[in-house]
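cache lookup: miss for this entity combination. No prior model stored, computing from scratch. Input as submitted by user K.M.:
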Amino acid sequence: MYVSHLLVIVALVAVAVFSGMFLKDVSMLVTYIICGCVAALSLFLLVRPVLYYRFYRYIITDDRIDVRQGVIVRTHTVVPIERLHQVEVVRGPINGFFGLANVNVTTAGGVAKIKFLENDVAESIVDGLNEVINKIVRERNQDA
Amino acid sequence: MLETPTRNHPTVVLSRVLAVALIMALVSIGYVAEGTYELIWGSVAIIALSSIVLFIFWAKTAIHATDTELISEFNFIVRKMKAVPYSKIASVNVIRTLPNRIFGTATVQVNINSSINAARPEISICLKNDLANQVRNELSARIYGLNYSAEQEQVYESSIVLTNRDAILHGLFGTSSWFFISSLFFTALSVVFIVFESAGDMMGLISTSLLFALSFLIPMIAMIIRYYNFRVYRLGDTIYLQHGAIQLYKTSFKVNKINSVRIKRTFFARLMNKACLEVDVVGINATQDTTPVLCILTSMDNIDKLMRNVVPDFIYENEGRRQPGRAAIPWLMKAFWASLFTALVYAYPVWFLFMGDVSSLNLVDWVIDPLRVIVVGSFVFLVLIYFGAAHLGFNNNRLDVGKDMFMFETGIIDRVRTVMQYDRSQIVDVVAWPSARRLGLARCKVSMLSSSGHSVSMSGYYPVEELEVIGEEVLDRIEDGRYDYKKSTF
């Protein structure tokens, strides 16, 4: 998360520098406003990973996946395991470099994510969830 | 019916080739205007090539039905076979587009319970009109256990009487009020331009007329044509919808495919004490009906009658609770932040107009003062809108948590009452912004499978513990067996 945020900060600073170069002759006020916004946003992006980690919680029980996350906007997501259609491990290039992965759980109504897990933890979660889903399917087949 | 492999009607190739030819003819007009006649041969080559490709696709695609499934096969270089078991079919539609009417054909579209394929039908076949209706009826007989002919179908009366006047009103006032007001704004702009600016300016007149047509006239007429001759009725567990003036749209789906019901009352509809009814149905072709309209704009009495006759399971008697008094604070905070952001955007123009070197604008002197009034006035107007919206948002939201269903009533200018079943909820989010969190409030976001993939409904601000009841109830119903997966649509 730090790395992806640093990349965003670099892009923001580049935007501020370029806009400063072009706008300094037009209005210094606008340049100051842009620089101020970039500085505030960069500061937030630097602090966000710590806060994100502090507030992030997930738990997987027999019947649900429960995720609590968010720094400014806090979200509590409840996904009944019975509703799962698909479970997958997703590794982006930055996550992959640091041995991390996300678990995406797909239901008929959308996707819920458990983010920034260590690879082996992500794999074990997916294995566990697949086992539960298969158990549900087997039980239903027996019923039928 | 389709016992042997059957191809699409050959006019499918013809109509598609004609469509390509029409596009290329429009492109070629540019070549002619530029005098580059040799490029027209390129257009001819594209038409010829597409004719060959379309012919091959037509010749090598066939559909047939077995006792248990409908099979579509394509066999040219690669072999593709798609089998759809009758048990997985969610809806069967018959569509008659303008080319279909010209050639005396109709297209049967078969949709399944899938969010991935929601945007287009799983299997589609164009046949002679009578054969298409026969195929639809036989498929309906297999799926819904009902057997009737196209002639019998005409006999069934609509559950409520809807006239074409209702279709016209729906075309005018059935869309969101924001869309209607913005369309009126553009229309007024066009009229002003035509009257004051475009005297003698033909290009200006054409462009403003186009703006008026695209923003108001065409969408309105398209909507009226689409919902003309609207009929809705229920036979057994199946709901039938039929509408359309030029393109006829017929669909049928089982009641248990409905995930939620929405009573929509736009601002203008409320003035007339009217509403329209929409349903989220799994497996209806979203390209035709993103959210199927179960009833076009009609009186509230008619809506009540239709709900009693067609979707009685979704009748929700409770009016719902308003948001608690402290919920006014997050709404006001939203308006405050929006105003602050707008103030930042306006800061420079206002500073420039009052303190800057206005002469650099090269404007006539008498324009400056009205310009200042317009800029400051528009800022004040926007701030008033934000706070007005906050006031309405606080007053209009309702929530009720029932035994088998729950209800959100939302909206600022247009009001939407959404009745949802716990058993169809897929993901439940409780979302809290800082201003709400400090007061122990949050909003509830419920994701469901819908005709267009998935849909989301959002409540107003309520105590967190009251909203978490929804997710807990979903889980409890699974746990104690009240949720029966056999009745589920997925």
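stored under new cache key. Chain A has two domains: 2-53, 57-143.
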